[in-house]
Write a structure and sequence with these properties.
Helix content is 68%, strand content 1%. With 358 residues, the protein is mainly alpha-helical.
Length: 358
């Protein structure tokens, strides 16, 4: 391709065009005042609005969560009485709890009531969820029905059960008398009172945990059940070898949540005991840590000791949460990330061949 160079009138080539300095010709015109304000507002909206939306939560948490927590910790290091000034005591409130028989009795009662209410509750919820997982007539009605106790008021449910377990005219003792047993002192004896309170807790929370288990069971791949059925496994064997291992994280979650709820048990024992409910019965036979904290703070007026009990309960809950984290991490490392995918499912289906014959 040929190029032609135009010459000037004198026959000399045209002068070379000097390049412009960098940034001289490429400088964009400045936006006007209105467009600049709009750009600034756009950047502010993009970066600041999410924090504005989150601000109500953080403000509410700071006012009703963080501040009471810090203030309770400050009170636990002082001797504070209702209507009086605070005096520094250091760790004296905690050392007095360590030597208090009422504290250790409340801690033991909290543990025993938690065990005899959590274990049957979760076992019944697991079996109930397994039944609801099958194609039953009126399955939607039964799913709503098992949640009805959870929607019932604690006060209403506890008062009804208090009448059922009444020593003199309760239905439970009437039925026991008809079959030849002596009346049981449900309110004044230690173990009968704790069993009665555990029945209330179990009745109220079994359906709630059953729906949690049911949701986890419906996420289990059907291929595992089909492989187990082809290997000759019965429904009971499928439940033990397929369902339970698949929903193990959900079971661990409900165990932790139920344990936390048992540690904070308050309404059921207080209403069950009636006039002596705050002290956990005439002999403190079913007084929990929450009842002891309430009694120290609002009956005897020792807010410092009540705050120390609250912080001990918080430490117990943190230990429970740490235990959950350790168990979850060990299960995850032991599972090797197989999970519910193809590799984990095939491995579990292969293990079914060895268990089907048992």
């Amino acid at each position: 391709m040929a190029t032609s160079v135009r010459a000037t009138s004198g026959g000399s080539p045209p002068p070379a065009v000097q390049p412009s300095p960098p940034g001289a010709g490429s400088r964009e015109p400045r936006p006007s005042g209105r467009s600049g304000l709009r750009s600034t507002l756009y950047r502010l909206d993009l970066k600041a609005v999410p924090y504005v939306f989150l601000a109500p939560f953080f403000l509410t948490f700071a006012a009703f969560g963080l501040f009471p927590l810090i203030y309770t910790g400050w009170l636990s290091l002082h001797r504070v009485e209702l209507g009086g000034s605070a005096r520094w005591k250091g760790l004296e409130n905690y050392t007095s709890l360590a030597g208090s028989e009422f504290f250790w009795n409340a801690l033991a009662n909290t543990f025993t009531i938690g065990v005899i209410s959590t274990v049957p509750q979760l076992l019944m919820a697991l079996g109930l969820a397994h039944l609801l997982n099958y194609q039953l007539r009126g399955r939607g009605f039964f799913r709503v029905a098992v949640l009805a106790p959870y929607a019932t008021s604690i006060a209403a449910a506890t008062l009804v059960f208090a009448q059922l377990f009444n020593t003199d005219y309760g239905l439970i003792n009437t039925v026991l008398g008809r079959v030849g047993f002596e009346p049981v002192a449900w309110e004044s004896s230690k173990w009968p009172a704790q069993i009665a309170i555990s029945v209330i807790v179990t009745w109220r929370w079994t359906g709630y945990n059953a729906l949690i288990y049911l949701a986890a069971m419906q996420a289990v791949p059907q291929d595992l059940y089909e492989a187990a059925a082809l290997d000759g496994a019965s429904r009971w064997r499928q439940f033990l070898s397929v369902t339970v291992p698949s929903i193990r994280p959900t079971i661990l979650f409900t165990v932790i949540v139920s344990t936390i709820g048992a540690t904070q048990l308050f309404g059921e024992p207080m209403l069950f005991g009636g006039s002596v409910g705050i002290s956990g019965g005439s002999g403190n036979q079913f007084q929990t840590l929450s009842l002891l904290m309430y009694e120290k703070g609002w009956v005897t007026g020792a807010l410092g000791q009540a705050s120390a009990i609250a912080w001990v309960m918080l430490l117990l809950l943190l230990l429970i949460g740490g235990f959950q984290a350790l168990v979850s991490r060990s299960n995850h490392s032991r599972g090797g990330g197989g999970g519910r995918g193809g590799g984990g499912g095939r491995g579990r289906a292969g293990r079914m061949r060895t268990k089907a014959g048992s």
